[in-house]
Amino acid sequence: MTKPLEDGRIPNDKLLVLGEDVRDSFDSRFFGYISKDRLIGKIIPMEK
């Protein structure tokens, strides 16, 4: 479970995510942060 930021910075071992699972983090209805080791993939934007 993530915790609220203390100094306004995301810890070095975390990643900012959008649309995080609200059941698994602190108040993350729109954004949150997770441990880097939980990353299972990433989105690569398509070129126009």
List the helices and strands and how they pair.
Elements: E1 14-18, E2 31-35
Antiparallel strand pairs: 1-2
Instruction: Report the major sheet.
Output: 2 strands, antiparallel
Report the order of strands and helices.
EE
- What is the arithmetic mean of pLDDT? 70
> C-alpha Rg, in Å?
12 Å
Tell me how many strands there are. 2
Q: Kindly estimate the percentage of residues that lie in beta strands according to DSSP.
A: 15-25%
Tell me, briefly, the overall form.
elongated
Number of contiguous helices: 0
Distance between the termini: 37 Å
Classification by helices and strands: mainly beta
Q: Point out poorly predicted stretches.
A: none
Helical content (DSSP H or I, runs of 4+): under 10%
- Strand line-up in the sheet with most strands: 1-2
